[in-house]
Q: What sequence folds into this?
């Protein structure tokens, strides 16, 4: 089960608990402005087939003691690299042949060149040779339920400079759920009264919660920033793959992330952060209208518009398209799954200018002219590696033309 941030906005913690009583592998992401959280619950007995990403270790040995400890010595100047709790098996051992292909033996590290494998006293005498090979063992992980983990959380640290931070947003996100249940809305941007109410709720959950952090969480509760959503979404996508494949060690169990360093030095007031009914309201709630206007009028020169740079330019364009020129009923979903907040790299669709029947009135119109002028401000057309006419045409057509004004020649092939 995987909720989007928008879906979580309409649910309280109690509602989520009730909905997934039937045991499912759950990855619950949520973003609030510059704050993000992820909860994993893969059940009380999750089997991890390959919890480490490294290749299996192997090495040559020169002796195996015949005793209760079973000390194994590796070839001189050949570190084994094993850790306590690893498992190994053996091949090509002469004399103590019962070790060849034996069931995995648990390792106790004694030094960089030695490790113990347990009782070998009932085996034959070691003569020479042998190779140890690390075995990948099934690992059973126990995840707490949502209610249990809220009461006794296990935190996954994302920033060692903030090692004591996770407990505060852990209380803060729960307080947000309670606030929404009581008021049927989230705290309003930069509203001191709402922030105080949220601090009171958070302090009931954790008396040691940092008031400044909780206050900032209240201020940004209605905020929405695409880059942060991309960070949290990318992380959750990996966790979903781990749950489906049972490969690699999943995150245990609560992750909290914030990027308060991204706030401008001069913060906006409550009036400047009020929603305008525009697509930028999520950013305005965080940074204020004045900052959003500054961002919209920002000029940037990007050197190297290759694969990543090309996507960056498209995102900048989406972030600053003039709503006065955007056509109603446009074809934005042709390029974006979230109404222009980010470019959809999986669509692989372009309006190719080398095979096109176009209305010059459209391409010479004010909307496309302003769009082209904006792109040209940074001068990147003079350094256009990887940036051709197709993406420019695609964005222009998707933004400024109605769906019915665009025809796709699906039955025509060009060579």
A:
């Amino acid at each position: 089960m995987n909720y989007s941030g928008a879906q979580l906005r309409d649910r309280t913690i109690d509602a989520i608990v009730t909905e997934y009583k039937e045991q499912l592998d759950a990855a619950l992401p949520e973003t609030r402005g510059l704050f993000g959280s992820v909860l994993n619950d893969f059940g009380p007995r999750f089997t991890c087939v390959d919890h480490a990403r490294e290749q299996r270790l192997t090495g040559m040995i020169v002796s195996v003691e015949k005793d209760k400890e079973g000390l194994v010595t590796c070839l001189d100047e050949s570190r084994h690299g094993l850790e306590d709790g690893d498992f190994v098996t053996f091949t090509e051992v002469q004399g103590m042949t019962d070790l060849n292909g034996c069931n995995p033996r648990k390792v106790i590290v004694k030094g960089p060149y030695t490790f113990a494998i347990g009782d070998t006293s009932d085996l034959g005498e070691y003569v020479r040779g042998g190779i140890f090979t690390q075995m990948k063992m099934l690992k059973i992980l126990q995840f707490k339920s949502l209610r249990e983990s809220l009461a006794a959380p296990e935190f996954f640290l994302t920033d060692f400079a903030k090692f004591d931070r996770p407990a505060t947003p852990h209380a803060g996100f729960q307080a947000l759920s309670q606030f929404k249940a009581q008021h049927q809305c989230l705290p309003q941007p930069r509203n001191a009264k709402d922030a105080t109410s949220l601090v009171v709720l958070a302090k009931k959950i954790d008396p040691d919660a940092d008031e400044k952090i909780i206050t900032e969480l209240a201020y940004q509760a209605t905020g929405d920033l695409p880059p942060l959503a991309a960070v949290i979404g990318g992380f959750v996508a990996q966790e979903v793959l781990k749950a489906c494949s049972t490969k690699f060690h999943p995150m245990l169990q609560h992750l909290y992330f914030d990027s308060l360093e991204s706030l401008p030095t001069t913060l906006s007031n409550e009036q400047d952060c009020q929603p305008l009914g525009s697509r930028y309201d999520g950013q305005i709630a965080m940074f204020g209208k004045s900052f959003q206007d500054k961002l919209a009028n920002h000029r940037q020169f990007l050197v190297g518009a290759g694969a990543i740079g090309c996507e960056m330019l498209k995102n900048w364009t989406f972030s600053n398209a003039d709503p006065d020129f955007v056509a109603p009923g446009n074809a934005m979903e042709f390029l974006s799954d979230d109404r222009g907040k980010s470019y959809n790299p999986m669509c692989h669709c372009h309006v190719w200018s080398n095979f096109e029947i176009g209305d010059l009135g459209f391409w010479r119109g004010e909307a496309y002219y302003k769009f082209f002028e904006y792109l040209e401000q940074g001068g990147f057309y003079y350094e256009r590696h990887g940036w051709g006419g197709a993406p420019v045409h695609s964005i222009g057509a998707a933004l400024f033309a109605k769906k019915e004004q665009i025809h796709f020649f699906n039955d025509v092939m060009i060579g």
Residues 1-10, 382-386 have pLDDT under 50 and may be disordered. The CA atoms of residues 62 and 118 lie 17 Å apart. Residues 226-245 form the longest helix (20 residues). The radius of gyration is 29 Å.
